[in-house]
Amino acid sequence: MIEANESSRKRVFISYKRSVEPDESIAMELFRALSQQHDVFIDQTMAVGAHWAQQIEAELRTTNFLVSLLSEHSVGSEMVLAEIDTAHRLGKEQAGHPAILPVRLNYREPFQYPLSAYLNPLNWAFWKGTTDTPHLIEELQRAISGGELSVDAPSKDALVKVSAPPPVPAPLLAAQPVPVELPEGAMDTESGFYIERPSDALALETIGRQGVTITIKGPRQMGKSSLLIRTMSAASDAGKRVAFLDFQLFDQEALSHADLFFRQFATWLTDQLELDDQTEEHWNKPLGNAQRCTRYVGRYLLRELDAPLVVAMDEVDSIFGATFRSDFFAMLRAWHNSRATNLLWKRLDLVLVTSTEPYQLIADLNQSPFNVGQVLELEDFTSAQVADLNHRYGSPLNPDGELQLMMLLNGHPYLTRRALYLIQSRHLSITDLLSHATDDRGPFSDHLRYHLFRMYDKKELVAGLLQVIRAGVCQNEQIFFRLRGAGLVRREGSAVVPRCRLYADYFRENLHA
Fold first, then answer.
1. Residues 421, 180: contact at Cβ < 8 Å?
2. pLDDT at 111 over 90
3. What confidence tens digit (pLDDT) does each residue in 373-418 have?
4. Cα separation, 41 vs 61, whole angstroms
């Protein structure tokens, strides 16, 4: 094949999940084929570390196209999602570059949130088996040269298994239908692997009442979204209307302009309830943003609905950096307070999910929605809960193995599920899992690389985490709460320690101040 001239050569980034098939083989075939005409980057042999994360970010920033390989394995990959998320953000900042080219590798399930938010509007390519590889290469070449991938909106239903809509929106990726549940994302309400904690009973009892405010808080991957799904399902079963809003979907422009944010919030809420959008009429009033939004909800949405309304808000700390965050949360507190004097507002329930310590979101306690109603703080699994989960997976570990897993992961819900899934599926033994826990291609590599990628350029967080690992302290309380919100550290008496030994071992080796 004749190489392209310099003016027609493009930069291409291939995103895939390592160490699984057919993902890795297809990724390498695409790399070899596309490299004859373009400058192609693939993360195949790079050593993990701060420089690795820096290069991934730099390559995504300068690439023209992100080719994302999506299989039953990769749709739950934290690193694949991080690369798509980064490309989506950069595309908005850089006039559409990189463009995302999704490729389904014999995967016919609908994309679940958050992948659906990024990929559903896009055309994509479909690969059924090895005989499709030459055609896939040609299709990607055409797209890189200015064409389109073949599967557009009218063609999607023929290729994708369309599931019946759930009774309430599921905010995160549900487990795939396999004999032993894949440990990825939020858990289905019918999952036999869901471990109930005391907070579950409180959430379900509270949402059954009228006019309530619930805050679910805890570090990343603690099970907050799984509990939110169950709370929304219970609300729906009780005859309430549920509107789910994930604040991660607000783009940077909305987070930079209060006028745009409040109006998008009202429009999005209306869309979730499948009502006619009447924001234009209410936004023409000479009022402040919080007043307009309150007027819109009180005089239109609550009156229009024939049932109580639950507004479920996930990842509300996504507006942590917005200058108007205190105004927004003060508005929610005002809605909570309005129930005491206005029966109409008793028809509104609020459920907020955050991994950031609430006082960082709004300093004035009298204006905070996070210190009223039912506040639920989730914690890692206890030894007894790990033993319960081990039993549900068919007891692949004996009591000594349970203890070893607890010593490594300290009951981290997601990592514990992943470890038991891998061991039960006979992918590796407990001995192999422990000895290769921090390896670049080990059982937790995707998860660990995700954290490294998200943190490498935040020098204050790197310094804070290293201080925790080396000295058992974090002198900056703001840094502590950010690390805790990311799920990396915890308090143990007066000391601050890594959340688990796995994190201590990995980041001691791979982080550099």
1. yes
2. no
3. 999 999 999 999 999 999 999 999 999 999 999 999 999 999 999 9
4. 12
B/e letters for 93-118, b = 16+ CB within 10 Å, e = fewer, are eeeebbbbbbbbbebebebbbbbebb
DSSP H or E segment with residue 290:
helix 289-296
The interaxial angle of helices 459-471 and 501-510, nearest 10 deg, is 120
Please state, in angstroms and rounded to a whole number, the distance separating the CA atoms of residues 229 and 370. Answer: 19
The predicted structure's pLDDT at residue 236: 95
Give, in degrees to the nearest 5, the angle at Cα 363 between 359 and 367: 100
* Lookup: tokens for 441: 């291609």
Which residues, in sequence order, are CB contacts of 252 under 8 Å at separation 6+? 89, 92, 93
Global pTM reads: 0.81
Q: Are 311 and 243 within 8 A, CB to CB?
A: yes
Alpha-carbon distance of 152 to 149, in angstroms, equals 8
Average pLDDT over residues 92-111: 90
* Cα angle, residue 185 at apex, residues 183 and 188 outer, rounded to 5°: 85
Give the strand order in the sheet containing 241-246: 241-246, 309-314, 348-354, 213-217, 374-377
CA–CA distance, 197 with 385 (Å, rounded to integer): 9
From the list 399, 400, 511, the residue with the least C-alpha distance to 461 is 511
Task: Provide the H-helix boundaries in 182-250.
Answer: 198-207, 224-237
Phi, psi of 402 (to 5 degrees): -60, -45
Q: How far apart are CA 166 and CA 173, in angstroms?
A: 13
Cα separation of 464 and 471, whole Å?
Answer: 10
> Which residue from 99, 160, 153, 95 is spatially nearest to 123, judged by alpha carbons?
153
Structure tokens at 102: 């999704």
The amino acid present at 148, given as its one-letter code, is E
Selected residue with higher pLDDT from 329 and 89: 329
**By the 8 A CB rule, do 41 and 59 touch?**
yes
CA atoms within 13 A on the CB side of 234: 19
3-state secondary structure of 454: helix
CA neighbor of 21 nearest in space, from 66, 81, 73, 68: 73
Q: For 404-413, b where at least 16 C-beta lie within 10 A, e where not — what string?
A: bbbebbbbbb
Burial 56-90 (b: 16+ CB within 10 A, else e): bbebbeebbbbbbbbbbbbbbbbbbbbbbbbbbeb
- Domains of the chain from N-terminus onward: 6-159 (3.40.50.300), 198-377 (3.40.50.300), 380-435 (no CATH), 440-513 (1.10.10)
Cα separation of 8 and 306, whole Å? 59
For 185, the 3-state DSSP assignment is coil
CA nearest to 87, candidates 122, 120, 61, 117: 61
> In which region does residue 410 sit, left (phi positive, over 0), alpha (psi from -120 to 50) or beta (all else)?
left
